[in-house]
Specification:
Layout lengths: L2 E7 L7 H12 L6 E7 L8 H12 L7 E4 H4 L4 H5 L5 E5 L11 H15 L4 E4 L2 H11 L6 E3 L17 E6 L8 H9 L6 E6 L6 H13 L6 E5 L3 H10 L2 E3 L9 H8 L4 E4 L4 H4 L5 E4 L4 H13 L1 H15 L5 H13 L4
Parallel strand pairs: 1-2, 1-3, 3-4, 4-5, 5-6, 7-8, 7-10, 8-9, 10-11, 11-12
Helix pairs in contact: 1-14, 7-8, 7-12, 10-13
Length: about 350
């Protein structure tokens, strides 16, 4: 059987890396030798209401008898282990990154998510992650045996090399405006480099955490950077391509990444990268293509930015290395094939 259900909470069209991954593997699965049939779960995860849990259980139980189901980690980590056991079908998990590692959680929420995800993962016949770093995290912190772990890193579409803007240097940061992406820290670092010639576009949804979006906008205004730092909101595929094309430097201040698809898009465009050493980033970005700084450290971020803003040969060296590495990145069909291979190996 090569037909698998793929249960995903909320709106599949949301402009996040996790949903983009899910959309692409669904689209590419037929070319990779299988089918992933989308099952839309309620949107309240990872903190679903009782009604949303009951609706999710009903949807999963209504699948054809014996059909294996892949459940996106945003939902799986919050589903009761007893519910998963009672499905009487092979269950696989797709973990983009552990839920408890999201920034902005209370200690209680973090502990709750860690416990529920650990219990849920114990019920999965296969656990698919989007990076080797996340697989290591799940072995170390969640007790997932290596024998049940599989890695299907995101694919990357070929793209033309970025042209850039050059004067002023255009910095590009991509990611929803949520605490984990630490866009506010980037603004703080840039505020100390106001004497240099740069502009920065921060591309990402501003409605996922309105309070954080308001906080970042207030920081931009407080530092008098309204003409230099732009919050674009989520953009269409075409508009985002235009932002990459106009960029001279890709930057992320993220506090944690389970992979970092924006980073591989930057590599595909031949952009030099300034990033943090958070989560899977050191695995995703080759050392010769990026300058890595400490996560959560505005001074380290500022100093790294200064180096790359002032050193044109260094930027060019990183850019050339990024372009070379981009030629080795997997396609989305290869990603879908790796994911399907893991599902096909599950015990039935």
């Amino acid at each position: 059987m090569n037909d698998f259900a793929f249960a995903i909470p909320g709106d599949l069209d949301l402009p996040t890396g996790g949903y983009a991954y899910d959309r692409r593997v669904i689209a590419e699965a037929p070319r990779a030798g299988g089918t992933l049939t989308h099952v839309a779960l309620p949107r309240g995860f990872p903190f679903p209401s009782l009604a949303e849990l009951e609706a999710s259980a009903a949807l999963l139980r209504a699948l054809p008898p014996g059909q294996p189901v892949l459940i996106d980690g945003l939902a799986l980590g919050a589903l009761p282990a007893s519910l998963l056991r009672g499905l009487e079908r092979p269950v696989a998990a797709l973990v983009h990154h552990p839920l408890a590692l999201e920034a902005g959680l209370s200690d209680h929420q973090r502990a709750q998510l860690h416990a529920s995800e650990k219990a849920a993962l114990a019920e999965a016949a296969a656990v698919i992650t989007t990076s080797p770093a996340t697989a290591r995290d799940l072995m170390r912190d969640y007790g997932v045996p290596e024998s049940r772990l599989h890695v299907a890193v995101p694919g990357t579409d070929p793209a033309p090399r970025a042209i850039g803007t050059a004067r002023p240097l255009r910095l590009l940061a991509v990611g929803s405006v949520i605490p984990r992406k630490a866009h506010g820290l980037l603004v703080e670092a840039l505020a100390e480099l106001a004497e240099l010639d740069w502009q920065c576009h921060i591309v990402g949804a501003t409605d996922r955490d309105p309070a954080e979006a308001a906080r970042v906008a207030a920081l931009i205004a407080a530092h008098g950077l309204g003409a230099r730092v732009r919050l674009t909101g989520a953009l269409s595929t075409e508009a985002l391509a235009g932002e990459f094309d106009a960029a001279d430097l890709f930057v992320t201040a993220s506090l944690f990444e389970g992979y970092g698809m924006g980073l591989t898009e930057a590599l595909a465009r031949g952009l030099p990268i300034l990033a943090t050493r958070a989560g899977a980033i050191p695995d995703t970005v080759p050392a010769e293509a990026a300058l890595l700084v400490e996560p959560g450290d505005a001074r380290s971020l500022r100093d790294g930015l200064r180096v790359l803003l002032e050193d044109t040969p260094r930027r060019r060296q990183l850019a050339d290395a990024a372009w070379r590495h981009a030629q080795t990145l997997p396609s989305w069909t290869e990603t879908a094939a790796a994911l399907l291979a893991a599902l096909k190996e599950m015990p039935r």
